Amino acid sequence: MRYIPSSPGERRRLLEAIGLRHAGELFDSIPREFRLERPLSLPDPMPEADLVEHLRGLSEQNLDPRAAAVFLGAGAYRHFIPAVVDHLISRSEFYSSYTPYQPEFSQGTLQAIFEFQTLICQLTSLDISNASLYDGASALGEAILLAHRARRRRRVVTAATVHPEYLKVAATLTSRLDLRIETLPSGADGLVDPGRLAQSLDPQTAAVVIQQPNFLGRLEEVEAIAEAAHRVGALLLVVVNEAVSLGLLKGPGSQGADVVLGEAQSLGVPLSFGGPYLGFMAIRSDFLRELPGRLVGQARDAAGRTGYVLTLATREQHIRRERATSNICTNQGLCMLAASIFLATLGKQGMRDLADLNRARAEYAKSRLSRIPGCRIPHDGPTFNEFVLELPGEAKPLHRALLRKGIVAGLPLADYFPERKRDLLLAFTEMNSKSQIDRLAEALGEAR
Amino acid sequence: MSEKRQGYPSDLKYTREHEWVRLEGGVGIIGITEYAQSELGDVVFVDLPEKGRALAAGEELGTIESVKAVSEIYAPVSGEVLEINETLREHPEKVNGDPYGEGWLVRIRVGDRPEIDRLLSSEAYRSHVEEGE
Amino acid sequence: MSVEKVPPKRPEGLLFEQSTAGKRGCEVPAAQVPAAAPLDARFIRGEIEGFPELSEREVVRHFTRISRLNYGNDQGFYPLGSCTMKYNPKVNEKAARLEGFAEAHPLLPEEAVQGSLQVVSELERFLCEIAGMDAFTLQPAAGAQGELTGIRMVRAFHESRGNPRQVVLIPDSAHGTNPASAHLCGYRVEEIASDSRGCVDLPHLRERMSEDVAVLMLTNPNTLGVFESEIGEICRVVHDAGGIVYLDGANLNAFVGVARPGDMGADVMHVNLHKTFSTPHGGGGPGSGPVGVKEPLARFLPVPRVARTEAGYRWRSDFPESIGRVHAFHGNFGMVLRAYAYVLANGPGGLREIAETAVLNANYVRKRLEGTYHLPYSSPTLHEVIFSDRNLEKHGVRTLDVAKRLMDYGFHPPTIYFPLIVKGALMIEPTESEGIQELDAFIEAMIRIAREAEEDPDLLRTAPHSTPIGRLDEAAAARKPILRWTPATSKGEA
ipTM score of the complex? Predict the structure, then answer.
């Protein structure tokens, strides 16, 4: 087989060196009753040209991204990825290397992680970041576990406007532990009411969880919420789904957040039907020993040279085993590298410009769509690049009709909140041109 | 202060879990043994209990973290925490360098009847370490 | 003036240290729309202090330079035991970048993603056939997450029968993720001893197995690279007491196409796509840890699941006993796609050839090194072999020193100090992706190092000598952690 560098002659030499006559003897330690008597029932092997044709054919059974106008967000966002990102992560020194347990052979990976940790701290305005986690949803689960360990309390209060799938995953992760997660509904404005929140908290609360921007696209009053949480000694966890927003919005760490976590897919990672993505977590330094995931620190060698090394690994499962802070065994290595390259390429001004542009396109869409007769913005108030539009009739049939015209009109909110039958959650990025937005407005105007 | 001590000082009592305790006049000073620190490797962080905390004999009172492992520390006898060794915050390596002296961990007030029966003498502890008894 | 034959290398420095105000690597598209009314100031951040400002050229230079400080699998041998560092086929990278796949949003309606759904559905089927299981989920993003998913399902299964049970049995040779996962599911962990062959001590298992035990978590072949040949009896003991057998599939490369965990009695297992199925390790991820089950556990699988209907592929969530979601979307589709391409490229014969060659290579390494290095277990080796440093102890040389010296010879070290039951373990897994020349070069280096241990042990204790950086003071790094750059940090630098 073309991936295996052994000729039949070489295999014979190896067998002879071991003193065996044929390859089957290699498996003598597997009881005969378990050895397959037949080849696996799988398709015949494909030469590369045929494989490429087959895969291309399959990819073309998906929506053509260039022909369609897609306004979907809800936790995953389509952004422009500069060519340098893919070029650099395609270097095999990066992608074909292992976890950097041998630092002398992995300074490239380790330095890239150290830079990523710094960038996340800068964006979130917090002290310490880990090397990344699987995705935003598991980052939320891990953050809740962190708060539980740090405060030794059993109650977590979360806004209903945190991404519903995140809440489900967090519930699955924490269900076996002595922890109760309670949801606080949002007000008519789509926001958490800090006063109502304060009333629902008590000294048994380990953490308050909100999302910024929240699932409905609205911007929460983070400072007031932080105050309410801290008054009872609870941690404030702020979830971020759309990391590009941090180019414009305050780092939640500067507003009182103790942990900022979420999804960094927006920073140079393709949509890829849901993964691999890039969870992140940043914390105030008080919680260092509770922080899950890998950490890279600076170190020196005997010659005084500065290098980078995995550190504080004793928190991790391969050493602490059942007492580990979590069971995480990986970070999202290459996705993390893509994010670092993306952020370095956009840079200080680029991040701000990108965020401004996203908001400008969304505000334009808001003004055009809200003027369609019968349509309104149910939660009026500041948003970033995503908002809810209420239609005069049911959203799902309209959504289907527009799909046939090559327009994906966001997400029918009823997919998550069945009572909201007339609502669409729409996202607008720099990849949605003015003419695409105009096309959406016209199609909605005709179809309603 | 006497010079750095090593091995199995005879004026101390020991546990199977490699803690030592010196009992004098109602007070116990607790640390980990030289063998323990050499198994752990370079100590990077020590997590100690709060003052005033009541400990039962055999209860976990904290952890010691090295580059490659984390070890729980168990109370050799019951008592109440009087003082912890604050210098270990900045200099955890004292546990390696002087485990029976400057690397002490906790001072506790011991009750009338400290549980000496469960402790090992220097000889018994040496056997435990060197012969695996 | 002193003249050096080889001038010292200029350290690359950090992104932040190379920044110059006003530079940028990317301009955003033209606005096209009117400027928006500004957001209220209370939401707007100030400038991000110290955020990089670099031209595109400098970004490329920086990351290209630091990449060259890495040793990748495309460059040379990577014999990490239990990691299966095999060749990453390049066509898989091409597949992942096909626009229809790369730009598919996970929440698109099913009719818009029939291609992706077909890949998911077909890989599930392939994995069932390869593993001997009845159903698979591709949601878990890594092996450890797969374990957690599997144990959660075990718990749900027992709960459905009225008693979740309390205990998970794990061999003392197991990887640390096993007990961590068990604990997260609310179980207590008890260890099963290994016998002199390195295998599960059957009498000990019989003694510990009871109706209080929910599951036995087993790796097969075990972490010593030895096949648990009593697997049939092991599964019987567990099943007779109503327990479940979980198989950690990390070592599937040893017998893919030759035997199947499902046939041996495993009820639930995970596979690592970044191991047996060739997806790249990426310097620490992303991976993927699909979980397979036998029919009695299928109803607990995470939702949604892909179904094939006359109307095409559809998501189905009507599984009331499902344990719920383990991933916000559908798992690491990018890795699923690569693994799918890998299975298609190999076919049934290719997969079997993988196992044969992997085991052949490991046995060759064992044969050629067992005179020089101490072999703690004489049981037959499958795809990975363990040595220890016992023969070098008399020279004051340890496994760590051997590993560091190997780098001077241009090889990535094997896995060291794992499994814990072997003192000074050196675990070598060549995989099928190495030819005899590379194996011989590695073997010769190892033999030379053993001789160096005798003749010049200090050389080994201070190795490596030829890498960009020497041994780092990890204790100091852990005592006073510096985990990010700040402007103050750079000023303190030499």
Answer: 0.96
